[in-house]
User: Which sequence fits this backbone?
């Protein structure tokens, strides 16, 4: 049996990109056996360690080592340094670009330009960055379709838990009437801790120490992260054309510990809930704190866990739950997209 | 754009088979538009209304009408009566056999023979009957593979909620370490009602009135239904070769209303839980009542709802939940299998 080869470019090499690289190294044997395919990396673009391209397979283990020790990727044998991530994409011969740069909620850049550049130069795109899908879903989906290229983004919402693949690959002919869920881990963790007695600041610090909340947690706390995800879900699964700014949004900054404790002791919980509904011809979305009753599925979604409930025409109400995800799950989402392209 | 045609044989025409027939009539336009395919039925085998084959597409609406009014299917124009379901399969020119006869937990017949006959005569198989998968998974899967035919069975567990498709189509490379869930609606409904104060008999009668429990509810009450499903899950998703009789099994007949009420008032719930675990090289499964803590996902699975929690190597812990399914969901599971074959 002959082994095919597929080449990838890693654009962004932070926590998510590096965890994916580790998975590709660890699971190379299993992937080769199962898919008769060797995945080789031929370009890496980083924020702090330079950007490189190569004609042949890079040594990913060595690249991980270099970055771990704060050294530039130019030290890799046989690579050519390029100016930046854009040039890495244009100059790379990779078949698939994997985009994992950080979210920019103002204009989705540079991720949006990365994706456009990749699709324009004939490369499939897999992204963990929800910005481009929230701001320009129709444009980049049309660009991918007109070039006969894949654009996959499973890990943009609920890490690697299958949402887009669930609907697209296992629920044919289904129409989604609404989606409702808890899709931001930081706020869910903070609210879980506060109802147990922590102050907002203590809970936030703990979330930051555990690597869940960003140094600047405003996007989570004020509901922006959930609103961006809501736009991706609405645009991708319900045919909407929502921008994050069009979504009614209320954060958790003003919630008082006492109200949370009181709700908890009366058998309820306050949670940041995202709701997307089809109302007539329109799709509407909102993000805000809600009181959850004990019989509600969302009642048991605490700490870092996430859940999304789909109300459908033919399959009734089904939900997918992800319990306390870690970085591996986000990287797995990218890997599952890559394997689905194979 | 040319429209393909695919022909099916409906073997079994009870509640599930008829609901599928209704969906095929209702959604014919959407299927034709989306899949460029017309699904035509060319054979029906029933327990009480005869078995027929036809060279051309049957009028499914008329077939539904006839059965609704207690008339034999021979009244359909242009059909030929055959002796029984076996002859219907052998004589039919259908490309796909859809098997929906009732479960037989002793030997899986006649469903097992139906499936063998279909695969031996070159027909793909979709079944809602868990018996054959629980008793002879390896044999019929090998038979399908050696004939290059599909064998699909999404609706055997948790109706149409994607479990097999979830794992096979959206979780590539994943190894499942364990599965744990509530997968029998009748017992879950009875336990939900009993903790609210109903007697076992009242709760069972209500489940029967609502069409969930069978006239002979023993299979549900004694945990056989869950054990058969556990075998299907273990054999299909964890590479096991379990028979239902090898599964440790305890039913709910001996549970007292007082214990259920007491557990409920102390913030817990008694539920019939199915667990399948990989232990070293082996896969072990058990079915039995368990006390569920309030923080457990299964705590919110009440009435007819079902849930299955997967513990995996790369995707952590994820769960799928189906809230209060009805007959349509089972029929949809068959339809989703059929559309996935297209």
Assistant:
């Amino acid at each position: 049996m002959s082994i095919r080869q597929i080449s990838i470019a890693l654009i962004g090499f932070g926590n998510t990109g590096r965890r994916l690289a580790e998975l590709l190294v660890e699971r190379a044997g299993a992937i080769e056996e199962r898919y008769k395919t060797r995945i080789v990396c031929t370009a890496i673009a980083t924020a702090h360690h330079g950007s490189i391209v190569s004609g042949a397979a890079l040594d990913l283990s060595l690249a991980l080592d270099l970055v771990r020790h704060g050294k530039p990727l130019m030290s890799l044998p046989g690579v050519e340094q390029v100016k930046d991530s854009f040039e890495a994409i244009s100059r790379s011969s990779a078949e698939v670009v994997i985009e994992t740069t950080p979210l920019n909620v103002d204009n989705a850049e540079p991720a949006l330009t990365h994706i456009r550049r990749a699709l324009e130069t004939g490369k499939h795109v897999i992204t963990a960055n929800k910005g481009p899908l929230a701001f320009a879903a129709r444009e980049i989906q049309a660009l991918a379709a007109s070039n006969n290229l894949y654009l996959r983004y499973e890990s943009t919402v609920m890490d690697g838990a299958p949402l887009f693949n669930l609907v697209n690959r296992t629920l044919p002919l289904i129409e989604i009437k609404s989606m409702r869920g808890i899709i931001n881990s930081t706020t869910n963790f903070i609210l879980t801790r506060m109802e147990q007695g922590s102050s907002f600041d203590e809970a936030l610090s703990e979330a930051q120490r555990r690597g869940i909340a960003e140094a600047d947690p405003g996007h989570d706390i004020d509901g922006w992260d959930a609103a961006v995800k809501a736009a991706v879900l609405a645009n991708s699964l319900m045919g909407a054309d929502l921008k994050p700014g069009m979504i009614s949004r209320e954060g958790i900054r003003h919630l008082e510990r006492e109200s949370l404790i009181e709700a908890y002791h009366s058998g309820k919980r306050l949670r940041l809930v995202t709701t997307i509904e089809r109302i007539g011809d329109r799709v509407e979305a909102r993000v805000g704190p809600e009181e959850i009753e004990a019989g509600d599925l969302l009642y048991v979604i605490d700490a870092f866990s996430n859940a999304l409930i789909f109300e459908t025409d033919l399959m009734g109400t089904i939900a997918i739950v992800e319990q306390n995800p870690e970085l591996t799950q986000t990287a797995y989402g990218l890997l599952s997209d890559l394997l689905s392209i194979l």
